[in-house]
UniProtKB/TrEMBL annotation:
This is EGF-like domain-containing protein. One of its GO terms (cellular component) is plasma membrane. Residues 307-331 are annotated as: Disordered. It is a multi-pass membrane protein.
Amino acid sequence: MEKYFAPCLLLYVIAGCFADDLTYLNGFYSKTPQRLSKYSWFGNVRLHHFRVPEDAVLARWLLTVSRGSGLNCGNQNITVHFRVGAPPVINPIETTFPNSTSVSLAHNLTLTIPSGQSGNVTLFNVTHPKPGDWFLAAHLPKDEGKIEQQGLPSCSYLFQAQMFLRRAADLPILQLNIPLYQTLTTTPALFKVFVPEFSSRLDVFILNCSVKLGNDCGLSITVGSSTLRQGSEVKQNCSGSESCSTSVLIPPWNSWLLVTVETSQPNTTIPFSISANVTVGCKPLSVSSDFNTSAFIRTIIAPQSNSSGGLSNTSVSIRDQPGLRANSSEPVCMRSPSVVRDEQDVLSLRFIVSSSNLTVTSDLPTVLTLEHSPGDSGGTFVVQLHLNTSSLVGGFAHVKACLTPSAPVLHVNRSQTCATGLMQGYSLSVSSNESQALLRIPFPDAAVWYLSLQTVCNDSVDCRNASAIVSASVSVSACIDDCGPYGECRLLRTHSYLYGACVCKAGWQGWGCTDGATAQSYSRQMTAALLLTLSNFFFIPPIVVALYRGYHVEAAIYFFTMFFSTFYHACDQPGVTVMCIMDYDTLQFCDFLGSVVSVWVTIVCMARLQDPVKYLLFMAGTLVISMAMQLDRRGLWNLLGPVLFALVIMVTSWVYRGVKRHQCYPPLWRRWVLFLLPGIVSALIGVCVYVFAQTDGNYYYTHSIWHVMVATSVVFLLPPREKHVPPWGWTNKICSYRRCKNEKVELYTVT
């Protein structure tokens, strides 16, 4: 019952926050607790995905962080980022973003677990949240580079996010130009209005406001929902007047907007009437009902098969395309070429414009409609513009472009900023001096995006006939430039949602692995590659010793380990120092498998068992280790398990031999002092360096020490040659044979 007490209490508190004529429904959504990690790249965050429905009036998140028991951990901060529409763009380690990348960092909240406490429970409220996908990303502070081995005790933290939702089931709808009479009490009055496509203005009016005492109703109007960003709501204070209005220029198309009316007068009943009006300023050119297949092939498919990369001087203008006609009932205010959405792979998408070269004029903007699905928000939105400098006509100054979600900017050449009524956009510009422009947006909002282009003229000339030809390339990719030479693009998943992120190497950092503030030099990278690969040649002495003493199977396993460890570390290097002879995952598996099997066969060989039993243990242990490596390659028990089991076998065999011979085994003190003790010390040094001393900064030489110590310990720990086995394990006469003669004299009877 205790685990349900907090949710029930919160639902009761939410139910008591509102008391009006609307019908409210409550919902509760919970996510599985996840273990937090220290932040070094976006893959370290724990991403939670929630869906907020329409007409939601309150979203309350219960954030629970619990600390694992067993260690005395100090104060710990946990950062939680919030964003609607796409995963949050974060920068907790303050790295620089790649060039031409525009970002808006998400709202964040810091939770603290004091020393001596086992957890933290925090409530975070969002009133009138925007409907859609909400994402929460949680992580620990910056990773200091310490490589922690799995299985060892450490300070662990679990994060769980739960959402309590309250929505109105019968929210009043504002019909266009039809007043709606309401009575306002201390509880805000809520309405919603639908904004159709091609709307250029939304107006909300309050009329006939009256109170019993005084003339000031003290009302305020808010249009829009909360997104935890500035500019997502438009507010108007109506104090001192009986009627007032608020306007939203270029509101989001094809969407419902929330309208909230509040009063500053306490304990007062205020009657008023409210209405809304939507202005549809213009529409694009209308397309005929007949689909022109030949034109589609000529403008869409044919350019893709053309190998020429040059920019043609010819262009297809929307005004010149057949099958287009102007709508006589509405003024034409934009050109809207057809755009094909071409999905190529997971988080790999491109938009193909019907005419590869767009004629951009100064009188009307050219607007490209780019439809994004919710699954596209986990990638990077890339927009490239190229100006054909030989096509400039009239008093051309430059071409300005605005990229905005939900609604386009209809007057690009007169807008100071690329922003609509409730959304902030992104601007690009190309001119005769800079003919190319690039814009990259990590984790774009899941919405319909609009790219508006218009020619801007010089002030001293007539601007009516100015035009230019621009080619536009728009795509969505998983990562920025595939993370460059010093990074790897990885697809991550939280439940059914996929998103991409870069994991960087060689000290490079940032969203696209382009921040070289802590990057390693080429000489440092080459030194690391040589140390990690050439240190494996220390396995040559164990191979020679094993062959000389007749342990051929053991020598083959040591060679297997040396070979794959060398080429795995050669493939694991970043940038220009990398060399892969086969798939990275295969090399890693063989390296991890060979390392553990080498330790296993060495200890089993020290037990001096009979050959059938020894080789049976070799094979059985290798199969079990292979299975364990496939389940979890970095698990600590993958190494400790075989080592402990082999030590039990070895100690049991030695005790049996000692009891049978009535003396300590091995019997010679030289064997203990000159071989066993140095081998054990070398192995312990290697294990301590591997487990406790490795960091990202010193990995290349601490791991090389691990290679040297393990190989050295094998040389000392391998048992001496059996008495009946000659050196190198071969008999004196390899190819000789003996013919056996039957000396029996046979008697033949002649008849």
